[in-house]
Amino acid sequence: MNRKAKGSNAERELVSMFWQKGWAAVRVAGSGSARFPNPDVLAGNKLRVLAVECKSIHDIKKYLSKEDVAQILSFSETFGAEPWIGIRFDKLQWFFISPEELQKIESGNFLISLELARRRGLSFEELTSSK
């Protein structure tokens, strides 16, 4: 399966998980190639709105560009949503990390490792529970 299909499947899986939990959720068409910043998934209930940048990987770490992180923060601030990075390592659960919790590396980009996700990330259940 190519990377684009893998990412799209992960986004669809996450949208389905939100709906099963009683939230409304949509995939945002053209995210990543759009002219304006937007998330991969937008989800909400009566209390919260989440903007999620999704990553699905087979490795134990993922690098994010500073531009990707800036775009999810910009969109979320303008839209009034909580920004989250959702990452699914192969054969493991989803982890959700606030952009502020990402590890900044020397280049100015960001790194999410499996260790960081386990230590600082939230599970889907934790993310969708009432605050």
Q: List the helices and strands in order.
A: HEEEEHEEEEHH
The total count of strands amounts to 8
Number of helices: 4
The fold-level CATH name is Trna Endonuclease, Chain: A, domain 1
The average pLDDT value, as a whole number, equals: 92
Q: What share of the residues lie within helices?
A: 25-40%
| Tally of discrete structural domains | 1
Roughly how many Å is the radius of gyration? 14 Å
Q: What is the CATH class name?
A: Alpha Beta
CATH-level-2 architecture? 3-Layer(aba) Sandwich
Structural class: alpha+beta
Strand order of the largest sheet: 1-2-3-5-6
Major sheet: 5 strands, mixed
Percent of residues in β-strands: 25-35%
Distance between the termini: 37 Å
**Overall geometric form:** globular
Low-confidence stretches: none
Detailed description of the structure:
It is a single chain. This protein is of the alpha+beta class. It has a single domain (3-128), classed as Trna Endonuclease, Chain: A, domain 1 (3-Layer(aba) Sandwich). 34% of the residues lie in helices and 30% in strands. It has four helices and eight strands. It has helices at 3-20, 66-79, 114-120, 124-128, and strands spanning 24-27, 41-44, 49-57, 61-64, 82-89, 94-97, 103-104, 110-113. A five-stranded mixed beta sheet has the order 1-2-3-5-6. Strands 4-8-7 form a three-stranded antiparallel beta sheet. β5 and β6 form a beta hairpin. The chain is globular. It starts with a helix and ends with a helix. 31% of the residues are buried. The mean pLDDT is 92.
